[in-house]
Amino acid sequence: MNIIRYVKEYKNLWNEFVKNAKNSHFLFHRDYMEYHSDRFEDFSLMIFDDAEKLITILPANIKEDTLYSHQGLTFGGFLVDDKMKTETMVEIFQALQIFIKSQNIKKLVYKCIPYIYHIKPSEEDRYALFRHDAKLIRRDVTSTIDLTEEVRYSKGRKWTINKAQKEAIETFESDDYGTFWELLISVLESNHEAKPVHTLEEIQKLARLFPKNIRLFVAKKNKQIVSGALIYENKNIVHTQYLANSELGREIGALDLLINYLIKDVYKNKKYFDFGISNENAGRYLNNGLIAQKEGFGARAVVHDFYELEIK
Questions:
Q1: Residue 27: which region, alpha, beta or left (left: phi > 0; alpha: psi -120 to 50)?
Q2: Torsion of CA 90, 92, 94, 96, to 10 degrees
């Protein structure tokens, strides 16, 4: 088994492996990962078997003496294909520890890819983490709707949607990222004293690179955008990367109407609709109001797990 650090000469090989992985996601394409290369020191790894065949890749970055399965991505452990076996993954973790110890790395922080993002079952890494005594250090909770079952809204969500349907609100896909970003920044600053992870220029660039995966939907009232949803779309699942609702949008229920449009019309043939996490403080704080809104649409809990492995 041979472990090497990713370099740009391997870009095509890396991207081809991502494309065919059974836990593939466009987040792991090099063109996506490198939009924020100035913020993270990339330390992605490629592992080859004894026949020099690529068998797995690990999107990662290094900070001081710790290797992270990439801090700039929502999630991401080992990507694997159909040929990956559990015994092999146990051996990979053993080889990984030897390799990163040789690089003077003392700790691995590993965040698993939640099962809802798997195209096929891909939890060989979870078992290998257990076998190597990795410690669970963080658990976030995301809220996800199973679209293969009947979607059941709460009475409150039904009431708001019915109210919004009486307004002259238009819901449609848009490429007006500039106006949406102004709304998003305003909402995040006033409600959470926060900023979007991406700049407008970054999200516009990523949307150009991944037009089938990054899509913007908006709700308009009197030709004014009052709410919007930036969607990250993968093979079986869609994720609301950013949601924003103006004061008028809240009054007339525009965002609920927009989400209903996405669930019932645009993405009705997908498997999962994921709203994202409702946590702070490394998973220890649950925003009850935020998660209640998501659960009002019928979403239920799926966890994002983070593990720590001391390198001995």
A1: alpha
A2: -150
Q: Are residues 130 and 154 in the same domain?
A: no
- Give the SS3 label for residue 200: helix
* 133, 255, 294 from 163: Cα distances, Å: 53, 12, 18
Confidence of residue 37 (pLDDT cuts 50, 70, 90): confident
What is the residue range of 135's domain?
2-140+305-310
Query: pLDDT tens digits for 201-217?
Result: 999 999 999 999 999 99
Is residue 283 classed as helix, strand or coil in its secondary structure? Answer: helix
Report which secondary-structure segment, H or E, holds 282: none
pTM, two decimals, is 0.94
Could you give the number of structural domains in the chain? 2
CATH number at residue 175: 3.40.630.30
> DSSP secondary-structure letter at 51?
T
Longest dimension (CA), the chain: 65
Question: Does residue 124 share a domain with residue 28?
Answer: yes
* Residue 211 and residue 114 share a domain: no
* DSSP state for residue 17 in the 8-state scheme: H
| Phi, psi of 108, rounded to the nearest 5 degrees | -115, 125
